[in-house]
Every structure is written in structure tokens, then in C-alpha cells.
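Hi team,

Below is the intake form for Anaphase-promoting complex subunit 4 WD40 domain-containing protein from Cloeon dipterum. Please confirm the fields before the structure is written into the shared record.

FORM ID: S-0412
PROTEIN: Anaphase-promoting complex subunit 4 WD40 domain-containing protein
ORGANISM: Cloeon dipterum
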Amino acid sequence: MLTNRDQVSVVLDGGKTIVTWTHAEQNKQLAQCRTHSAFSSRITCVQWHPKQPGHLAIGHHDGTLSFYTSAAKVQLNLRVSKEDDGEVCSVQWDPLAEDYLLVVHRVGPLRLLSSQGATVLATFRHPATCRANCVAWLPQCPGMFISGDDDSGVIRLWTVGRETPLENRPLQVSGLRSLVLLSIPDDAEDTTFEAATAPVAAGAVVCLFANGGVGVHDLKRNKWDYLKEAGHVETVFSCAFRPDDSCTLASGSFDGSVKLWSCSSGRACPLSSTPGRESIVYSVSWAPSPSPLLAAATARDGVLLVDTQAARVAQRLTHHGRGISVFCVAWCAADARRVASAGGDNCCVVVQHAGQLEVQRCQHPGSVFGCDWQGADRIATACDDGIVRVFRVACKDDPEPIELRGHTAKVFNVKWCPALKNVLCSGSDDCSIRVWDTEQGSCVRTLLGHKGHVRGIAWNHAFPHLIISGSWDFSIRVWDVRTAECVAVENEHGADVYGISVCPSRPLLVASTSRDSTVRLWNLAPLIPVITMAPLVPKNALDVLFTDEFCLNEDWVVRIHGEIAQKMDEMLSSTQLDQMRKFLAVSDLLHGDPCVSNLWDLVMVLRGTKEMSQLSKQYTRGVVHASHVATCRLADATQDELKAKGQGQKAEAELRKAADGFLRAGALRRYCEVMVRLGEWDKALGVAPGVSLDYWKQINQKRINELYARESELVLPHALAHGDLQGLVTFYANRGQLEESLALSCLSGLKAEAGSEAAADRPGDDGSFCSGSPLMSTTARAVAESMLRKGQPIKAACTLLAVDDDHGALQMLMRGNELELLVTVGRALGKTNDCHVDRALALLAVRARRLKEWKLAIDLLSEIKDVEVRKHGTLRLLVNFPGSSTVREQLLKEAGLPDTEKCAQRAHELKIFDEVDRVYEAVQLLMAVGEFEEAVDLGCRIVPEILQPHRKWNLEKALKIMELVHETGIVSDKIRLLSAYLGTLIAIRRGYHSIVPALIENAVMELRRSGDGSCGLQEAQLHALTGLDTGMLGRLKEAPSADPDRGNVHVTGSALPSNSGTKRCILAGAPIRGPILRLDNSESSLVSLSDAIMWAKCGAMSPLGTVLNPF
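The structure came back. Fields below:
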């Protein structure tokens, strides 16, 4: 369908009929205008004239064109050329002319035509082996247009007065499918820029790529304003993690492609997609390690065995028959030779793929939608008749299959329990998930909660009490199979959820796929906080491993099970690994974010590891240390150069990519060599003097200044050769390309002088690296802050570790609430006395108290090095501690406090004083002996005194007092007002800008509620706070760098797009993106987790009058 203001056209009847309608503005209805069906060839494209109502151009499969207007006779199937140029791919009217248009054929040149008789006015020729697929005019620059190549993502700028392109711009590897120019406002300034030989209109063009990518390209600045990398363009049915690589995920889609994803970067890996021209891919399954083969079940072509290293289909298994849909494929982990597949021929077929030998055919009464292996000799199937069946494979006796009945609609998927060999689960169109005992032949659990057909299901192999499911109700649910309860629900997919996969080597990482064409990653760590916190106390590390066999009983204690538990046990018991390496390995396994591997690689570099071969194989995919940047870029560029074999467009693209890599690695000599191979002598000669000629710098500086003034990216080679890294970093930072700015700043840490042979060829090969470069540090901070705001705190920490800023990295993990990681990284770097580590341990103890894990809370507090932090944490714990008096006395002693009797005596001596320090100590001692009401009264008396305008504020002490008050559970108008007012001051000081307006509003509301001002605060103080006058700002100096809680909090995923509807935070009022916290069971009490953490760190009570504990 194509529209143009008040006219609409639709192509029908196999592409040989076109119907047009007129839109009536008065009654908002369409009235059919004309129907044309006399075309001799199928219609491939249509285009209304943008300014001439009723003018329509039509392209056909046989290469002809048709034209008509609403008032004239139709010109049918006019041939443009005597040669066979193939079908018409695109037609575009010139918006500044009445009857001129551009025509793109599948082969042959571009042509400018007149619609009067299809007369050719001009011909435009592409470079050899290239062909165009789409075009777009540049209205602000008459007579100029751009084209997009079909086989590669190159756009070319043209003018009608020249046969060859003005400029060629490689954008992506994948071909272009459409170009749409975004309009420029009439009052916009500087609407032109200089191309190779002529001024070209500035603006942005929307580029649609064949691999599903889409971007908005700024023509003037030659950069992406927005770019979505290659993704699926249709429903994604299935996904599977590679068994030996937790960072690689495969997915199959309705668009016919199989893609590989790098989970650490969230982007499709190189050579990661089949062309997308196969039939629908319903299911994918990896061969057991170390094979690179991936099986894909398709709608028409059987089972494809894809060689992921070569990115090609290595073999086809067609045992279900040609044209028969195969809905599921499962590779046998116990016997890598066997592959099972379930299809629409009512069979589950087991094949020995190497020789395509059919081992067994399991017949069913209806279509088979799912299958799964148990060992090498049993397979479970899901059938259209609602029955789950279990077959013996290659068994001599060939017994009858076990039939499990209970579902009331078709069964779509089955999965065996990883811990119990006779237990499996199944998902059905009756919206339920059932857990079966195959020995008893009965259903032992029914999981109810989904409102739509259940599609994807997965059993967590390390935590076998958890089942994850996806449904047509758009939700993902996590179930505790012991109690049949749903423990978590996520609604972030915007459509049906089809595929669920648990990472084999990182069990808390889960992937899901959906009809919304996305693949999403989830972290299960919040569901098992005790398991993730326990290893932080070394003596508790082995306690989280399984001791007894898993069972379905409710009293089974959650422990790590299976191969992951065995792997952890081996590492923790090893005598060859030091304590820190054990610690890092365990932390890596117990975190759901694959970026953690990158974090630990950087930690190992900071601990002295120099060889990249000793780091993980994913290291070069993520953030690399500044001392490795040049080496990694040089290696990538060399690899690209080796790929450039022979002639043609692809070889040219690889060479250009290699040249760009050499350039960004600072290898100017190699850059010049590649440019000579490309025949671009002007660029080679222009950069070559930077290798050794000093006098060239004077001449080159003029060129640099000119290019900076024009904001041209052509400045990059000249400025690098000149050594003007400061200018380049500023240049890219101003363009918003912060990561590129950081990478370039890292070159400033290399000691080789710019212009020397070492700098020109392989900077940093001698390992010489200076971590104190102010330019590099400042840029890294800016990039890390940007990543944190995008909800990527671990990547932000990696960025700072890459430039040796360990303190900054710990700060990023604190602001991302990655507390367990913070403690582990701090210990690994020898920063056990760092304020961030102590604060993280204190917050983890708060979390343990919320979970009633008192022993764990005590152990965590004992790890704190700072005496005052440990004392305050112990006092907060003692308020609700259920232990014996003996244990309480021991805790007091460890916190540096006297026994209960002496505490009481000292408290009554101090409480009569007015000095803040003495009263604060009295509050602490009263809390220690359990005299809570008196402690609360005393605290509520001294806090207003602390906050009086004539006093020197001590906000930290006031906050500690209010935290102790909150622990008692005593709530009053005075307490709510004090916490709201104090929380506002703390938030302003720490830079929690997103919640300050809501805190002020809450404080004003509480003041008006209290009425008489008996709490010691006056309304004038609130007005001063609301206006933030100069006197207030002068007293609220920025929190010191030693404060571990300074800076806005952005938890992991807090910037991800949400498809679950508009939900607003009750605290800040803004729409919630990312993780959500519920204050109660109502939908109106939703809280952004980031805002909740900042609110809680300020000591403020929620608007519901409750104390927040989101840690």
C-alpha cells in the first residue's frame, strides 16, 4: 500500500491489479476511485508524485514502467531500454519537477526519465560489480540524489550533471533496502555541506538494511544519529546459548535467518547470520561442545545443520519429507551423533546425522511440536493431542511409550528436570505447566498463572527448583516447583513470548524471544539473594553447594546443583588457585550479567596479568585495557586486510575497513600501504609525512584547523599524524561519540612519541603505558557516566578499570547497586579498606536482615574494616535481632561497645546534654540496650536542632540517627516529616537530582499534615528548600568524594525500553523504565528500583509511611 495526502493505492491479485481510493476529509472516509488490471507484468513498486495530485508511477517485474493520472489515459508497460535490465526496484519522482523521475532496475545503470513516453534523459553508472537498490532525492539541493547499494551498505551521492558518483560512503556490510530523507525545517541554518566536488544539502536519511538493521545517518557530519544493529525483522521463535561460550547466543526467526549474538555487547557477531532466504526457522539447538554446528528446524527445508564458524549451511536433514514443517530440534548432549526432531508429519525422528542414518521414528496421532532428550536413550515429546509421551531410543524390546495425560489442549514443549531423571515438565495451550513423574505416570505439580498459551519453558540446571516459562500473554514467569508458586513475573516483551533458554555456564543468565522481534536477557540473581551473598564471607562459600539430592519437597533448602556446583567445589577445594582467583571464579559463575567476565579480565590486568592469552577469549569483544587498545585494533585491522582477496566491491570494503582500523590504532605506515592498494594516493601522500617529517606539521596544522572549522571527520588522519589527540577527543565528544573519544584518549597513555617509528607502526608493543594521562582519565569518566545513565554500571566500571581508575570503578558499581560485585572487585584489587567496600557490605547486611538471614548479616558486618560503619550496622541489626542475650553481648563487644549494663549507664549520663555528639552517642547506647522509645524521642529532639539554620549542619549524623529510628518500626507525623526534610537535604548534597522535586513535595505535605510545627521545623525552612536560595545552596556543599553514596543511582537495565505499558514511579512521578519495586500489592504503588535505592539511602520514608529496603 502507498499513500499520498488524499490518495491511497493498493496492489492486489498477485501484483497485477492496482486499486486507488480518494480520502474525503469531510467524513474521514475512503471512496474507491479507479481499478486497473490490464498490466502484462507483476507490479514491483509504485510511487505517487509528491506535488502533482493523481500522478502515479508503476514499476514492473519485466523492467517496464506504467504511468497514469486521474484525468488521463494510462500508459501501460513502457520499456525503458532495449537491454534486459531485470525488474524495476524503485521509482522516485523529482519533487521539483512535474514529470521527471529516477528509475532503478535490478541490473544496469540508474536512469533519469521523463514520464512522457518514458524518455531517458540521463544515465548514471555504478562502479563495476555494484548495483543500486533504492534512491532518494535531496530536495534542498536541486538535481542531486543519493542511492543505496543492494549487496553492501554503501550510499552514493550523485548530481544529474555527472555520470559517476560525487562520493561513496560505506555505512554497513549488509545491503540497503530503502532510503527515506527526513525533511529539514525551513528556518534551519547551514543546510548545505561540501561533498567531493559540490555542495550537498545537509539532513538525515533513514537507512533500512537487508539484515534488519535501521539507522538515521547525518549526511553533513557523516555519522549515525541512531543505529540499530542487525536484528530479526519478524517473530523470533527460539534461542539457545552455546554450551562452551556463555557470551554466544543463537536465535531463529520467522524471517528465515539464524543469528548469533554476543551477549556481552548485545550485538550480532560478525559472520553471524544466514542470508534470511531459507524458510521459517522454528527451533535451534547447539551440538555438544566443542562442535561449532547448530541445528535449525525449518518450515519447508527440514533440519539445517549450520556451521557457525563458516556461517553456512553444512548439511540438510530431510527425514520428515520435503515441505513438511519441523517444529522442534534437539541435539543429544550425551551422544553428539544423534539429533531428534519433531514435525508436522506426526513423527519425532531420531537421526545419526554424520551418515544421515535414521535411528528411530516415533509415530504420533497428531503433529509433534516439542521434544527433549534425557540421557542418550530416552526422549519426551509434546503432541497436538494434549499427551506427553516418553520413548526409549534404539531399545531392542521397543516398549510402548509412557503416556502422560492431564493437559486439556495441545502440548507445545517439554523439558526434562536436570536433577531428577524421572521428572519432566510440559507447557500447553491450556495455559498451564505440568510437572510429571514418569515412574508413577502422574502429574505432581500444576503451575497456573499464565493467561495465554504456554510456549517456551526451561528448567534451571543449577537451581532445579526454578522453571522459567513464556506465554502468549506477553509475560515471562519464574516458578518455584517445590510450592508451585510463581515467584516473578516480567511483562517487558511487547508480544507473545516463544523461546526461553538458560545459559549452561552462567545459570543466572536467561534469554527470551518474542513476536516483538527482540531477544532479551534476564538476570535471576534477585530471586536467590542468599546464594549470591554467601560467598562474600569466605567461610560460607561451600555452604551454598548442594549436600543432598534435589527433591520436590517444600522443605528442600535452595542450593547450587549439578555441574556448576561440582565446578565450584573443585575450584574452592583446589590447592593450585590462590584465594583471590577462587573468589573471582565463584563471583563470575554467580552473576547473570555476561559483562562480569570483562570486569574480571580487567581486574586481572590490574593485578599484573600482561599477556592477553591468559584472559578470557571474550576479552577483546568488550572493554579492553588502555594498554591493549592499540594492539587489539591493529590485530583486527590486519585480519580485515587478510580477508580482502581478489577484486570487487567486497574486497574494497574489507580494505577500507582495514585502513580505518590501522588509522585508529595509530599505525600510519600500514594505513598508507592500504590506501596505495586502493589507489587513493592523495590520502596516502597526505598522511605519510606524519611518520617522520617534522616540518610537515606546520603545513598540516592549517589543514587541521580548516577541517575542525567545517566539523569534517576527514580531520581524523591528519590530526592523528600531527599528534593532536586533545583536539580529536574534544571533537568526538562534541559529536556525542564518547566511546570513540575514550579509545582515542587511550593512545595518550602510550609513551612512544608521536611521529616516531614505534608510534607509526605498533604503539605500545613494548608494554610501556602511562596510566596518569589527564586526557584519558577525564574522557573515561565521561564515557563511564554515559554508560551508567544507560543502565550499564558493569560496563561503566570496565571503562574505568581500563584506565586504571579502580576507585572510580567501585563508585560505578555502587551507583549501579552491584553490591556483591563491588565487594569482590574491591578485594581482588586490594581495596578492602575502601569506603565503597565497607558501605556495600553494610547494605548487604541490611538485605540479609530483610530476608531474616541473621547469621549471614552478622558475618557480613564482621567483614567491614571501618569501626564506625561496623558499629552503626551492628546497632541497626540489634534493634530487631531475635538472638539470645549472650549473642547480643558478643555483637556489642565486636562493635566496640561496652556490655548492656554499662551502655545503659553511659546513655543516661549523656542524654542530659545538648551537644550533638553526646546526644548521638546516647541514642546509639539506648538502641543497644533496647530502650527504643526513649532513643526515638531523644533522636527526634536532636535532629531538628542539627538542622536549625544557625547551626553547622552535620547531615551524616542526623541521617544515622533517623536510620536507627526507622529500624524500631515506630512511626509518627514528626518522624515522617524529619525523614522527608532530612532526606531532601541529603539528596541535594549527594546529587540525587531525579528524586529531589518529589522529596521536597513530600516534605511540604508532611509539614502541613503535622500542622503545629512541634517537630522543630518551620515552614520557612521548607520554602527556602523549595526555592533553593543561595544561602541554602551555600550550606549544601557537594558530598565529599569519600562519601560512597554520592551520585545518581542507575541499576542494570534502568534505561531499557519498556513494553509493559506506562507505569509511573510513586516516588518521583516519572515513567518507570527497567526494574520495578512494589511498595504493596496495588498497581498504584510501583517504584523505580533506582529511585527507591536513592530514596532509601536518604533515609526518607515512602509516601505510604513505610521504610524502604530495596537493597
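SUMMARY LINE: Residues 289 and 454 are 30 Å apart (CA to CA).

Thanks, M.
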